[in-house]
Amino acid sequence: MNAPVLSLSRRLRVSPFEQRSLQGSKSASVYNHLVLPTCYESLEGDYWHLREHVQIWDVACQVQVQVSGPDALEFIEYLTPRDVSRCAVGQCIYTPLVDECGGIINDPLILRLADDCFWISLSDSDVLLWAKGLALGKGFDVQIRDPDVFPLSIQGPKSAELLSRVLGDGIRELKFFRFVETVIADTPVVVARTGWSGQGGYEIYLREPRDGIKLWDTLVAAGEGLQVRPGCPNLIERIESGLLSYGNDMTLANNPIEAGLDRFFKLGKSADYLGRVALEKIAAEGVGSRLVRLTIAGAPLANPRTVYAICDEAGVETGAVTSAVYSPRLETNVAFAYVPVAAAEPGNRVSVMTPDGVREATVTDEHWQTP
User: What is the pLDDT of residue 367?
Assistant: First the structure.
């Protein structure tokens, strides 16, 4: 079945990099009301290039929500179980945002630009209006807005070489989950040592949208000899690297404990937050399922449009595969799945219901991104 053509209109926001990033892209999706390219050469071809060279990604779809004002820290604390007071100016933290039931609203990066100013760099879910409603209802003295800031990502083992040609070798010393405010091609940017791949890279937050093409072209020109080319988040690479996708591997129906995101926070922080009672109850009672990594036997398996059911010996559904793909490097299908806690130990086997029949799968704790 041929995929439908993506129709673009002014209902979708325009990325400052769109004139460059859509050239040569073979497919695209919509993410946070912006167009996100999803393939250039092929899924496998893009994967090998990302592992070996350097790519420029249009990730303007990682929309920012800016929170500033006297109560900015207190309000950010209210959105998440993670202790944000430990986040210094110039630091990024990854954390789930949770609702009153402990459900995951989003799993953003939070950047602290000043004592009283934060950016929430979003995954694919609307947070701006939710945050504004919470702030108004609870009486926080904050200003919440979309700052018109658009990220561009460079990812791959040669990303440090590329960026050092633009900003000097000092950028190589930037620590993981730290950022600096600087200038590239006469335009102000924030450069963070982050990115949605396990191959190393940076995210460049453009503060002047009209300079998007200039920024893109500057990076391309600096990449001579590095085999730099446009790219995008890659399904194979992100599953191998253990990177979860909001909307795929967790939704509002999931809590961060069953999704394994509790490794990024400790319950009991001093600041109040929206889901405290719910999460403490979930932790006390225990979860019924856990998100695990699987290897799935058989021929290459396509990523599910929704999920692939996991069933027990009696055919009763007990879990679901949320993301899956064939890894050409590992020569097996790799996946994320929710399984009962009793089946979550590495080495346990489960049955996956696929379009071409039942497949045997094995729970694993391997770190697939290593060479």
Answer: 75
pTM over 0.70: yes
Three-state SS string over the chain comes to: CCCCCCCCCCCCCCCCCHHHHCCCCCEEEEECCEEEEEECCCHHHHHHHHHHCCEEEECCCCCEEEEECCCHHHHHHHHCCCCHHHCCCCEEEECCEECCCCCEEECCEEEEEECCEEEEECCCCCCHHHHHHHHHHHCCCCEEECCCCEEEEEECCCHHHHHHHHHCHHHHHCCCCEEEEEEECCEEEEEECCCCCCCCEEEEEECCHHHHHHHHHHHHHHCCCCCCEEECCCHHHHHHCCCCCECCCECCCCCCCCCCHHHHCCCCCCCCCCCHHHHHHHHHHCCCEEEEEEEECCCCCCCCCCCEEEECCCCCEEEEEEEEEEECCCCEEEEEEEEEHHHCCCCCEEEEEECCEEEEEEEECCCCCCC
> What does pLDDT average to in each consecutive run of 10 residues of the chain (371 residues)?
82 97 96 97 98 98 98 98 98 98 98 98 97 98 98 98 98 98 97 97 98 98 98 98 97 98 96 97 98 97 97 92 98 98 96 96 82 51
Task: Say yes or no: 259 and 354 in one domain.
Answer: yes
- Answer yes or no: is 2 within a domain: no
Q: Which of 145, 170, 202 is the last residue of a domain?
A: 145
Q: What's the confidence (pLDDT) of residue 365?
A: 87
Q: Which structural domain range is residue 360 located in?
A: 240-364
Same-domain pairing of 208 and 246? no
Q: Has residue 11 been placed in a domain?
A: no
Last residue of a domain, one of 219, 239, 259: 239
